[in-house]
Amino acid sequence: MNKPRVISSVILRKDKKLLLVKEKMENDEERWIFPGGGVEFGETIEDAAVRELREELGLDVRIKEFLFFKEAIFPRYDYHTVIFFFMAEPLNEEIKKMEEILDVGYFTVEEIKKLNLVSSAKWVMEELNKKGIV
Question: Do the Cβ atoms of 33 and 119 come closer than 8 Å?
Fold first, then answer.
């Protein structure tokens, strides 16, 4: 029996821009998402967020606050996650992306509106707007 996967994701803001990464999805589409990844057994969701940013992008971050969570269910792709989103600040500037990351960059809200986002990233942008963060 499949179980939902717990994901920890980070929102990084720099000069009124947000950091996004482009990845290949389960359906082979290339989409933009907020960086993050799976929580390992025995690891807190905050620790997972810090580890994932270091592994994927070479960035050290400090978690500032928990923002919200989102459940994403796509049975067609055998995909069910619960994603926890944190606001964080980078402790270093140089991004060294891992090979699986197709692209990475900081984008304005207007630029993000033109990107091919995953549904959870679209939802995050709406929530950030409601909270007055963007």
Answer: no
